[in-house]
Each structure stands twice: as C-alpha cells, then as structure tokens.
Design brief:
CATH superfamily of chain B: Thiamin diphosphate (ThDP)-binding fold, Pyr/PP domains
CATH topology of the largest domain in chain A: Rossmann fold
Number of helices of chain B: 11
Helix content of chain B: 25-40%
Distance between the termini of chain B: 48 Å
CATH class of chain B: Alpha Beta
Largest sheet of chain B: 8 strands, mixed
CATH topology of chain B: Rossmann fold
Number of strands of chain A: 16
Number of domains of chain B: 1
CATH superfamily of the largest domain in chain A: Thiamin diphosphate (ThDP)-binding fold, Pyr/PP domains
Structural class of chain A: alpha/beta
Radius of gyration of chain B: 18 Å
Order of helices and strands of chain B: HEHEHEHHEEEHEHEHHEHEH
Radius of gyration of chain A: 21 Å
Number of domains of chain A: 2
Oligomer: heterodimer
Strand order of the largest sheet of chain B: 2-1-3-4-8-7-10-9
Largest interface: A-B, 44 and 41 residues
Strand content of chain B: 15-25%
Shape of chain A: globular
CATH architecture of the largest domain in chain A: 3-Layer(aba) Sandwich
Distance between the termini of chain A: 52 Å
Number of helices of chain A: 13
Helix content of chain A: 25-40%
Strand content of chain A: 15-25%
Structural class of chain B: alpha/beta
Chain lengths: 384, 266
C-alpha cells in the first residue's frame, strides 16, 4: 500500500483546526484571545476555501451567540477561547444546553482567575467547564495530551454535540495548544463522522422540536426549512413554547441532564498506560499527562510498577472507570495543573479517598516528571 | 393571506399589558411582511429578553428567543450561515442599547442585512419599571425615585454614526406609517434600524403622570413631526419621524461571498 497519508508538523491548536475541518465544520465565530487565537487564524483561511464561514465578532459573548444561531440553520459550528473569554461565554453556553443546540467550544486553558497568566499553561477551568453557567445542567468536556489525540477528540466533540444536541467543551491547555509535533491526518472515512439528525417529517406534519425519540435523541429541522418552531431559553414544552408548568419544567430538566449522564459509558474516553499490574496509579490529562507518562516509563525501567490512567473525557466524570481501575492500587496520584479540581472528583470516586494524593503545579510552568517523582517518593514512603 | 395567518394562535393570549404599544407594532410589522409577500419559511425572527422580545413567540416564522441583549449576535450567525433568509430582530430599548449596545453598533458597522426594530417605550417593563438608556433625564422610575439624571441615546444618530445604511423612526400611534417604513427597511439590503416609539402605560405612564394608553398615544402624535414638515421647521423640539438614511453600501454577507470566491481561486 502506498503511503498517501498527510503528515504535518503543527501546533496543537492547528491539530484542533484539522480535526474540526475533518468533522465537517461549517461555521466559526470567535474573538482574539491568547492562547487560542491560532484556531481562529487558521480557520479564517481554511473555512472559506471549503465554502464555510468565518466571522470575527465584536466580543466573546457575541461569538458564542453567533455559533448558536448558525447551528440552527443546520451547520456544524465552533468557537474557541481561553479563560476570560470562557467566562464571558457562559450564559450563552447555558442557552445552548437549554435549547439543545449542537456546538463545540474550545477552551485553550491559561492561568486564572481574571487576566491571570495569558501565555502560560494551566488546567484551572475544569470546574468552570462543568458549572460555569448557572442552573442545573449536564455538560460534555473532552481533553487530550498530544496532537493526534487532539485531532481525534475534536472530531469526537463534534460527533457528541450532534448525537446529544448539546454544547461540548474541548478543554485544551496552553502547553499542548502551542507545542509543535507530528500529526497524521486520517483519510476521509477512517474516523466515524456523526451528521446532524434531521426530522423525516413532511412539511404538513406537526413537528415537535423538543419531543425526544425513544432513544432520547431529538431530530432537528433547519431554520429556513419547512418546519417553523420556537427556540427559547425559557423552560419549554415539546413545541418549544415557554412553559412554567411544574411537570414540563421537571421533565425538561431531567431530560437535558439524563441524556448525558445516562450515556456516560458512550461518552467516556480514556487511555491506559502500563496500568495492568500498576501498584501506583497516576491519573492525569492534557499536557500534564505527558509528564506522568514519561515518569511511569522512567520508573518502569527501574522495576517500579507505575501506571497512568489518562482521562480524555472529564465531564461527565468517569467515576466508575476510576473506581474500577484504581481498586487494587496502593495509592493514586492525580497529576494536574490546578489546586486539585480533578483530585476532588477522584477522591469522591474511589473506595479509599485517603490514598489519593495530588501532584500539582499552578505557577504557569508545565509540571515535570521530576515534580511528580518527588511526591511519588513520599507516597511510597521512600522519602523525598 | 390575512395578518392572522402570520400569528401562532396556540401562543395566545399574549403577555402584554392592556394599552401596551407593542401589539400595535406587531400589527404594523405583520402588515409589512404581508404586503411584501414574504414567505413564512423565509423569515427568522430573533429576539432577546424583555416585553418586546416576546414578540418572536407570537409570529409563525422561524423564531429564536434568546438571551438579554444578544439577539443581534444570534441573528448575525443565522444570517451569515443562510444569507437567503430575511432576519427580523425586534428589541426593547434596554435590550438593544444597554446590555446589547455593543452588538447594535457592530451589526450596523458590518452593514449585515438584518432589520432591527427598536420598540422604544423608554422603560424596563418586564422587570417592573426601571429607567433605560433611552429614558432621558427627569424621569421617574423604580430605580430613579428622585428622577433620572442620565442622558439618553438618540437611536437614529447612534445607528447612523455606527454605519447602518437604513435608519428610520416612527411611533405606535403612526401604525400605517410604521408599516410603510418597515416595508422599506425589510426590503433594504443592509443593516436597517427602525425605532418605533411605544407606550408603557403600566410602568412609565403611571409613574410619570402621562395618563393612560390613549393619552400616551396623544403624546406620540403631538410630540413628533415628519422630516421636512412645516411643523418640524417651526418647532425643532419635536421628535422627527421618517427615513433618515437610505443608502446602498456593500452588505456583509455579499462581501463574504467574495472572500469565499477569492479563497477558492487560490
């Protein structure tokens, strides 16, 4: 077989762009912000070449709103941002949850709060991705530690957004976003693509935009098509009409949470590195997982049974997988670049929360294998 | 088609107070749509939050009832992704020019083909009568018990300066005139702004001793005059009505189509 694959040497942000184009992105709206700007820059060139649309909006809020509007006309849509912009987008993300509009939001994380550390790495937006917008809801958030995975997880993000009619957050970070490494772009058809599920109802049939099918999915109808319906951020009935009927309110909230939480097994993504016989397990994700994997490889050479559970989906939190994988571990180290946001979830998931430790940095520097090793030594009772 | 055929009867009764001007504006708008012969499937109405924003639920178009102040940003996404659709964006004064002020000026600057209708009753009605950026000084409101000191925007001047290529003003009292203006605004290719003065007897009229809806409509009649009229020349304090700007300028979606052509030739 002749080698026809396209091999590129790119930034992580470009890998995200390539993944989005592969997934069928039609429309991007954004606002410049470090360290995500390269996503907008590359898409401003790529999208019109494919007949797609790119627009630089007046602010972060407008960008989020514009992609929701464009999604309703039948487009695959995306925006990209970082900390301060992610804060600004939250109200409209909640709107997309409530109105069930497929869209992808890439947040290339930098140090916060506030302006924080724009050009340096952080993983401090884990909880904001989950609870940034007000009110009960569920959300899907994915992450990746290398460019091939960024590509694939970006494709996944679009697929999950379409499958569950929901916003999907791509939690990248400054280190993977700006780092350059090899990316092999798969052939068309190599990765599955989920297209929009559209209603098969004819124009004279009463279409219910918010009546889930038996499998929980809601077929859509493009704005501008034959079915005219109402979309609102208010609680609404199956026609999209506002309602404060307690039964309607209860059912809608249950639906937007259950459609994600009940499908956690289909949504959960993770990778195992040397986990089968591991006595000590490092749980990590994003760029910090690279250091965790490096340390495990180094220590394996010395005969230490260290493994890494690399999370690629953060929300809904894969508690069951973590409980199962960590059941026989002597200790679990969560490696992350924040003050323990994923660690808190891991402690809640495992049987022995006291055997969960945090190896972290939150000073803008990438956590190193050496940083993790120092803590691992203490946990192993081998001194510093 | 009768005007009734453009309404979603399932949505009624509407939530506007007795005497509210917004229903009259809806009437003017639907007559404009009818007289232009637009197909319901070709219209998307996008709105934000407030009494005015509820208009989108009552019409049998594709309707997108969004979040406070951002209707034009959502509308920009709809329009750029499907330029063949007609986009109507009714907004209240607070929705359009307080929380939504940034989107308002930038939509005007882009000259994107959207019709923005500012239903200006000079008050936040839905939240119970707080002053808005169009209230002006000396007004009583629930958040201005000692009267307002804020200067108002002039919607016409703001839209003109920001680059809207069609700018007009009318009132709920002048319902037929509003229809004629709205017809031109919708047909215009570019960003159109139509300010229509409306009355809120419940929250503005009562507090400011302007009387009931009929008395407030009298004010709209007596305090305004057509551009170029003798009345306006004699009394420059009257609020001018009519079309202030109507110019052909490059429209955003058409310009973007050129970008696509250019990108594809490379």
């Amino acid at each position: 077989m002749t080698e026809t694959k396209k091999i590129r040497f790119v930034q992580g942000n470009e890998a995200c762009v390539e993944g989005a184009m592969y997934a069928g992105l039609d429309f991007f709206a954004g606002y410049p912000i470090t360290p995500s700007t390269e996503i907008a820059e590359h898409l401003s060139e790529r999208l019109p070449r494919n007949g797609g649309k790119f627009i630089q909006m007046e602010d972060e809020i407008a960008s989020m709103c514009a992609i929701v509007g464009a999604s309703l006309t039948g487009n695959k849509v995306m925006t990209a941002t970082s900390g301060p912009g992610f804060s600004l987008k939250q109200e409209a993300i909640g709107y997309a949850c409530m109105a069930e509009i497929p869209c992808v939001i890439a947040n290339v994380q930098r140090g916060g709060p506030s302006t924080g550390n724009p050009t340096h790495v952080s993983q401090g937006d884990i909880n904001q991705a989950r609870w940034g917008t007000h009110g009960d809801h569920s959300i899907i958030a994915l992450t990746a530690s290398n460019h091939q995975d960024i590509f694939e997880i970006t494709v996944d993000a679009f697929n999950l957004a379409e499958t569950y009619r929901t916003p999907v957050i791509l939690l990248l970070d400054e280190a993977v976003g700006h780092m350059r490494e090899k990316l092999v772009i798969p052939e068309k058809g190599e990765l599955p693509i989920v297209d929009r599920l559209r209603t098969s109802l004819g124009k004279d049939v009463d279409y219910h935009p918010y009546l889930p099918r038996e499998d929980g999915r809601l077929p859509m109808s493009d704005f501008g098509g034959e079915h005219r319906y109402n979309v609102t951020g208010l609680y609404h009935d199956m026609w999209g009409f506002p309602s404060n009927n307690p039964t309607v309110v209860n059912q809608l909230l249950r639906h937007i949470v259950d459609k994600i939480e009940n499908n956690i097994h289909s949504i959960t993504r993770y990778k195992e590195h040397y986990l089968e016989d591991a006595q000590y397990i490092l749980i990590s994700y994003g760029s910090s997982a690279r250091s965790a994997i490096q340390l495990a490889e180094d220590r394996r050479k010395k005969g230490e049974k260290i493994g890494v559970l690399e999370l690629q989906s953060i929300w809904p939190f894969p508690s069951e997988v973590i409980r199962e994988k960590c059941a026989r571990a002597r200790a679990v180290l969560v490696v992350e670049m924040n003050m323990g946001q994923v660690m808190a979830q891991v402690k809640a998931a495992v049987e022995k929360p006291k055997r969960v430790f945090l190896a972290n940095r939150f000073d803008g520097k990438l956590i190193t294998p050496h940083d993790i090793k120092s803590l691992l030594r203490m946990v192993q009772g081998r001194g510093v | 088609m009768a005007v009734k055929d453009y309404l979603r009867e399932r949505f009624f009764p509407h939530m506007w107070c007795p005497g509210c001007g917004h229903g009259t504006i809806l009437n003017s708008l639907l007559r404009a749509v009818e007289e232009l012969g637009l197909k319901k499937n070709d219209i998307v109405m996008t709105s934000g939050i407030g009494c005015s924003a509820r208009i989108s639920g009552y019409v049998d178009f594709h309707s997108l009832h969004t979040i406070h102040g951002r209707a034009l940003a959502f509308a920009t996404g709809v329009k750029l992704s499907r330029p063949n659709l007609n986009i109507l964006v009714p907004m209240g004064d607070g929705d359009a020019l307080a929380i939504g002020g940034n989107h308002f000026i930038h939509a005007a600057r882009r000259n994107i083909d959207i019709t923005a209708i500012v239903m200006n009753n000079r008050i936040y009605g839905m939240t119970g009568g707080q002053f808005s950026p169009l209230s002006g000084p000396g007004i009583k409101a629930t958040t201005a018990p000692y009267l307002t000191i804020d200067s108002p925007f002039d919607v016409v001047k703001l839209a003109t300066a920001a680059g809207a290529s069609f700018v007009a003003r009318s009132t709920a009292y002048h319902a037929r005139e509003s229809t004629e203006i709205l017809k031109k605004a919708i047909a215009h290719k570019g960003f159109s702004v139509v300010e229509i003065l409306s009355q809120c007897p419940t929250h503005y009229g009562r507090k400011n001793k302007e009387g009931d809806a009929v008395a407030m409509l009298e004010v709209q009649k007596n305090n305004t005059a057509k551009i170029g009229s003798k009345a306006l020349a004699e009394n420059p304090n009257l609020i001018p009505r009519g079309i202030f700007v109507q110019e052909e300028r490059p429209e955003y979606c058409s310009e973007y189509d050129k970008i696509i052509q250019h990108a594809q030739q490379r």
